[in-house]
Predict the structure.
Amino acid sequence: MSDTPNSGYYQRHIFFCLNERLNGEDCCALHGAKEGFDHCKQRVKQEGLAGKGQVRVNKAGCLDRCAGGPVAVVYPEGVWYTFIDNSDIDEIVESHLKNGKVVERLQLPDSVGR
Ligand code: FES
């Protein structure tokens, strides 16, 4: 990878919605978002994928696709995921973040919004 300003500091960037609504409305925080985020962060580190030129795992606020929660999105591909448990996260890490292969079975349909 060249060292020009637009070369992309990270190869892939995954954002997890961790939004929590205190007014009782549904949100990703009520569906295991934090657990998924923590597990992803840990797995990426264990696999030696974290850091410049590789993968960054970030928290995000509401991504406005709450009906599919918990949700996460991977850039630069712009692929959206929903997940249930740690084995789903493991698959996203191994297949997509590490090897660039989208996990189709966990993709969030385009029709899912807020
Ligand atoms: S609360 Fe997670 S996308 Fe809106």
Q: What stands out?
A: The first helix runs from residue 33 to 46. The mean pLDDT is 95.
